[in-house]
Amino acid sequence: MDLARGLAVLGMLAAHLLDTERVLTPDPESWITLVNGRSSILFAVLAGLSIALVTGGTRPLPTERRPRAAARLAMRGAMLWVIGVLLVMTGVPVYVILPAYAVLFVLALPFLGLRARGLLTAAAVFALVMPWVQPVLDAAPIWSGPGGDELAALIGWNYPFTTWIAFLLAGMGLGRLDLRAPAPQGLLVTVGGSLALAGYGAALLTAPAVRGNAYLAVVLTAEDHSAGLWEVIGSGGFAIAVIGACLLLCRTPLRWVAVPLRAVGSMPLTAYVLQLVVWAIVALALLGDTSDLYGIREAGLFAPLVAGLVVLCTVWVLVIGRGPLEALIDRAVRAVVGGDVVRPAAQLR
Question: pTM of the predicted model, to two decimals?
């Protein structure tokens, strides 16, 4: 899981700081476009998986233990929302995902008692239904009225929870499976890959048919960040396949080669926040403006920022352990709500 989270964090950074506006072709130079949209969706699926692991794993917590688990998740969501709003205030030209995370954490609470089948069924229902509703919600007058942009930023509407709840529930469903054995790990790769092919393939097949129909063109699309039906299926499947591949890879000696990426993924909140804070500081110093996206791309920030992030996270994990923001939030939650409901598995074993 740490490896998959590390890929998601660095993938989002690449989507922001590199030229990813290309058409995917057999030319390897175009493959960087894979990070567009898919990295954030992978992050959301992994969030759901983590929620499942800390609320009973393969067996949901009994009814009497769920209120404390729900309180812990709600408080974590509230703290993520505050951090997200502070990042929005830096003016860095990215759609900060943390406010959307906070909303999704709250929406996950009624589903804590479900097993894998129920969670995956709910995810499928949201995935198949909400893309048809999302264009109507996006066209609501509230977004174009006074304060609409600010409201969208405060709830992370660029990652609309109305549709993205499907990714979170899918991750929770995966977390209710026994993913320690190679068979289910391989199944994730197979099922996820099949969904990705189905979603992206359907997008190619339906593209000629939806031309001229504005509504269907928005719904039946796999375009990045569209919340379209084919993106939800294709990119959701891609995320599942990546998780399965990471689980299988870490059954081999390559798990030690991947320690730097796993270190980044073991402290995803710290890594995500740190990259945006450093970005804001560098942009302000070099350009005098934190919102100049093209200027910061031309400054070549991506490579040194990734290298510094990977080195810092690796040293921190090996010398100190848990990430600073992760530890801070955990201490705050323990102080207010109490200790862990289920002890998380040790990382980097």
Answer: 0.91
